Amino acid sequence: MDSNVTQILLVENNAAKIVENDDQCQERRSLQERKTESKTKDVDEQTKTFKRRWIMLLLFCLSSALNAFHWIQYSSVANVVMRYYDVSAIYVNWSSMIFMAVYVPLVFPATWLLEKKGLRIAMIIGVLMSALGSWMKLLSLDRDKFLVGFLAQFIIGSAQMFTLSLPARLAGLWFDSSQVSTACAIGVSSNQLGIALSFLIPPIVVRDSEDYTQIRSDLQYLFIMMAVPTTLLLILVYFFFEASPPAPPSLAQLSAREREKGRGTSYSTVLKTLITNKDYVLLMLSYGLNVGVFYAYSTLLNQLFLIHFPNGQTEAGQIGLTLIIGGMWGSVVWGIVLDKTHMFRGTTLLVYAMGVVGIVGFTYSLSYKHLIMIYITSGFLGFFMNGYLTVAYEFAAELTYPLPESTSSGLLNAIGEALGVVLVLGAGIILDAKGDFPTNLLLSSVLILGLLISFFISGKKLQRLAASHVQS
User: Fold this and answer.
1) Which residue ranges traverse the bilayer (predicted)?
2) Does residue 39 register a pLDDT over 50?
């Protein structure tokens, strides 16, 4: 009897302990949930997006477009410029290649200045240099003043240091993880808009005339057309452009800010980290080959096209415009795709492969003088080859987070500019010696090589995306 009572008491005691332990577990879970909610609330309070981010993006887009317009301003009317200034094709080609040549040595001090002084100072310097170079071109109107125009190109080309690498940086500073790739894409497409207008406007304004006085007047009108809006933009940037928002837009940027405050990473350390990142180096090579081919096509398009269509200066400009408009759409579309899917490696391979298809199609369309197909393949090529720029910028930001986006983008562009000079010179020599078909085959082969390199890039280390997911 006593034994049964004792057993009953033990059972009741164990049951009470189980209930007590269960209550303690519930309290711990509740406490953990409250801590999690509190942490999420703290993060939400520390991160914020501001409506004026679109104003910052607009001002950047205008500065990038106006700067990019000058890149092939002479090359898009190469036949007229060669005759008016009495210079050979290589001089006209160098008027665009100077943009690539100055980028490589100047990108390192420019990105250092950007990281130390911020976006605002970089933007003001960039637009100021573009405005000075634009007005300087008015001093090059005499037929013996091509060197003055070339010097103006040098100044404007140096100004691109402060625009070409900024899309990913500006997007990361002002936009949250759901918009960052789209914002970067818009920034990239603005540069292409400037190139598109340079394909379109100079062949219309600068007429292919035997009257040198007429050509001089046309060039003067073209130069003023660019100098005035660039000067007005300088005023807007000075008064309205901000270096960064008061609060970061995402947890990734919040973590980056705290890391920068905690330990200032030297610029040399950042560079060393980048060049020892295998995936980033592979991306840098594939990007450089893609951009180099684009630069070569854009610079030589007028000469390539006039071989088959001797009186087709205007059509050559329109085909270049089609190439760039396709690239603008591609940049935006692929930016949205990345924001929705975050499939960086898969998108890279798809876009690159279709770019190869486009360049082969363009090569054969030009050889067979099929004008409609030239337009179609040009737009197709631009949509994928130029659309790849946004993908590469964002992929680089993912692979190198939390390092500054401007530095990773700057190195990408440095390789692209260097290979652009090599390919423009090489393709120009082959074009003069062998004609357009071997030239196009060379550029197609280079793009295929870039595709093969892309297959070795791993898409598993998406560090910025992982940091942003903590916030959600």
Assistant:
1) 54-74, 94-114, 121-140, 146-168, 180-201, 221-241, 280-298, 318-337, 349-366, 372-391, 411-431, 437-457
2) no
Supply 56's token pair: 């910052």
The CB density around residue 382, as the number of other CB atoms within 10 Å, is 29
Whether 387 contacts 351, CB under 8 Å: yes
Q: Which amino acid is at 100?
A: M
Question: Which two structure tokens, joined as six digits, stand for 162?
Answer: 């402060």
For 238, the token pair is 């000075």
| CA dist list (Å): 401 to 17, 182, 252, 256 | 50, 18, 9, 9
Contacts with 378 (C-beta within 8 Å, 6 or more apart), sequence order:
319, 320, 322, 323, 326, 362
pLDDT per residue over 60-96, tens digit each?
A: 999 999 999 998 899 889 889 999 999 998 899 899 8
